[in-house]
Amino acid sequence: EFNKIETIAKYFHWVHSVNRAKVALKLSEHRPENLELLNLLIEVNVDDENNKIGAAIEELPMIGDFIAKLPNIKLCGLTATFTISHDFEAQRKPFKRLREAFEKLKPQGRSNLDILCMGKSHDFEAAIAESATMVRIGKGIFGETEM
């Protein structure tokens, strides 16, 4: 599970998928001190689905506090994956939960939190309505890709 962390810590500038304090710790330990801080987003399982990874919303203050004490990395915000819906109001509900969690983390001495990454090609309008600062719209630009 941690076999790629050393490579990521050495060669990447951003990690959008930190879902546990242990992952952040390993990234911090392997980040060379001569490089800029490694930017992190905590990945949240907003819908509390068993088949999705991510930290629970209730865990965010603890994980945020833990990450804030680590050298070589910087917590920049939150991200999540959401259940696909084509109903605008249904799309907004989980985005609102993530935004509210984000807003609760900011005043706790985390002034560098400024990224709220949520929304993809099919739901970016609802994500923006709930204050997303970053969206992933690859399919909206490039179309479906073959794997």
Keywords:
single chain, 147 residues, alpha/beta, five-stranded parallel sheet, 20% strand, globular
The low-confidence parts are none
Helix-residue proportion = 25-40%
Spatial strand order of the main sheet: 1-2-3-4-5
From the spread of the alpha carbons, the general shape counts as globular
Order of helix and strand elements from N to C terminus: HEHEHEHEHEH
Rg on CA atoms, Å: 16 Å
Which percent range describes the beta-strand content? 15-25%
What is the number of strand segments?
5
Main sheet makeup: 5 strands, parallel
Structural class: alpha/beta
Please report the distance between the alpha carbons of the first and last residues. Answer: 23 Å
Mean pLDDT: 89
Oligomeric state of the chains present here: single chain
Instruction: Count every helix, treating DSSP H or I runs of 4 or more residues as helices.
Output: 6
Structural write-up:
The mean pLDDT is 89. It is globular and about 45 Å long. With 147 residues, the chain is of the alpha/beta class. The protein has a five-stranded parallel sheet with strand order 1-2-3-4-5. It has helices at residues 5-11, 21-30, 60-68, 88-105, 124-129, 138-142; strands at 14-18, 38-44, 73-80, 115-120, 134-136. Helix 1 (5-11) packs across helix 2. Strand 3 (73-80), helix 4 and strand 4 (115-120) form a beta-alpha-beta unit. It is built from six helices and five strands.
